[in-house]
Write a structure and sequence with these properties.
Elements lengths: L9 H4 L4 H4 L6 E7 L1 E5 L16 E5 L29 E5 L1 E4 L5 E3 L2 E2 L8 H4 L5 E7 L13 E4 L15 E5 L19 E2 L11 E6 L3 E2 L13 E2 L21 E2 L2 E8 L18 E3 L11 E4 L6 H7 L4 E2 L10 H6 L26
Parallel strand pairs: 1-19
Antiparallel strand pairs: 1-8, 2-3, 3-4, 4-18, 5-6, 5-17, 7-16, 8-16, 9-18, 10-11, 10-12, 12-16, 13-14, 13-15
Length: about 350
């Protein structure tokens, strides 16, 4: 496949990883950081109304996040957002990662910003959070999500490799400081991307990527399992750069390729004398998974008006700015917060992972 570099982005392209320098003509890739809005044991998608929910999440986006989020349009319940696009009041969340020391205690792993190749505040100055991608490059029109739309990808109960998820759920061990080794597209290089958490110390931290389905049934904004209303193309889970083939007849509407990227700062825990005595991988997600196969992510759409559709209809937008879409500065974004509902220690050493005494739903 031929990829062309767009001269309009030459000024920023030299600071980008090689895989993003060349891409399909007409492609739009909104790529922006969202600072943390709260760390809490809530999950309004899987465990609505449950306080506390079974495990801890890191949440970014609008300050309308709460235990229920039953409204059909969450953009009307939020007054601010931690994301670069000021009209994006969506919420994006994943489980937290913890280091388990040799003595059996746990410590939360903090997130870094995005790779420093991207010279913008929402990459380098968000002090953690999540990098979000919305990509429009599939054949035909891409339809933005509708108010009330929500979905889930991944399965927290998974503990074995699923070959079908190799392009949807992966990790990269940064081999040097400052995100060394960030040289190819996510989940596409079997030599450096793994479906399990890396077994070795990573000098620059661990990057995780989670990709959502790209086809929708066009009717249901949600489903009982939060998955059945969306689907992968008929050719299977999409390659991040080619974005797959035709949508199935049951899910004919093309939706944006949504991807989360989190860089976990595992560097304070690279001393193997603190790892388990058998040298095994010491990182656990907040639901008790130290394989990484259970990585999952939740999404509740909350873009205001037709702002996201503007981006999907545009061509050759890349990064955190696109046409007349509204942006904000980093300072107000980082001031946007949600009050913690479950009072727990998020930064100290813990004897057990919060909520592990609860049954997993």
């Amino acid at each position: 496949m031929l990829w062309t570099t767009l001269l309009a982005f030459a000024a920023v392209a030299e600071a980008m990883p090689k895989w993003m320098e060349k891409r399909q003509g007409g492609m739009t890739m909104l790529r922006f950081g969202c600072a943390q809005v709260v760390i809490d044991r809530l999950d309004p998608l899987v465990n609505p109304g449950v306080i506390p929910s079974p495990h801890v999440h890191q949440i970014v986006g609008g300050n309308g996040f709460n235990a229920t989020m039953t409204t059909s349009d969450v953009s009307k319940t939020a007054t601010c957002t931690t994301c670069a696009f000021s009209k994006d009041f969506s919420n994006y969340w994943t489980a937290n990662l913890y280091f388990k020391a040799r003595n059996g205690t746990y410590k939360r792993v903090k997130q870094l910003g995005a790779a420093r190749q991207f010279n913008d505040d929402f990459s380098t100055a968000i002090d953690g959070g999540v990098l979000v991608y919305y990509v429009s490059a599939q054949p035909g029109k891409v339809t933005a999500f509708k108010p009330g739309f929500r979905m889930l990808v991944g399965d927290p109960t998974s503990r074995k490799v699923d070959a079908n998820m190799k392009r949807q759920n992966c990790y990269r061990c940064y081999t040097g400081p400052n995100f060394g080794g960030d040289t190819s597209a996510p989940c596409m290089d079997a030599n450096i991307d793994t479906q399990s958490l890396p077994p070795q110390p990573c000098k620059g931290g661990i990057r995780s990527n989670i990709l959502f389905p790209t086809c929708w049934d066009g009717k249901n904004l949600d489903s009982p399992d939060h998955k059945a209303h969306v689907a992968y193309p008929t050719s299977g889970p999409a390659n991040f750069l080619s974005l797959g083939g035709n949508c199935p007849s049951t899910h004919p509407v093309r939706i944006p390729q949504l991807m989360y990227e989190v860089v976990w700062d595992t560097t304070p825990f690279n001393d193997k004398s603190q790892w388990p005595a058998d040298g095994s991988q010491p990182f656990y997600f907040s639901y008790g998974d130290n394989t990484g196969y259970g990585q999952h992510a939740d999404y509740v759409f909350g873009w205001q008006d037709d702002e996201l559709q503007k981006g999907m209809d545009a061509t050759n937008c890349m990064g955190a700015k696109c046409k007349d879409m509204k942006n904000q500065a980093i300072a107000p974004a980082k001031q946007c917060q949600v009050k913690t509902a479950v009072k727990e220690d998020h930064d100290g050493w813990l004897s057990e992972l919060p909520g592990m005494e609860m049954p997993m739903h």
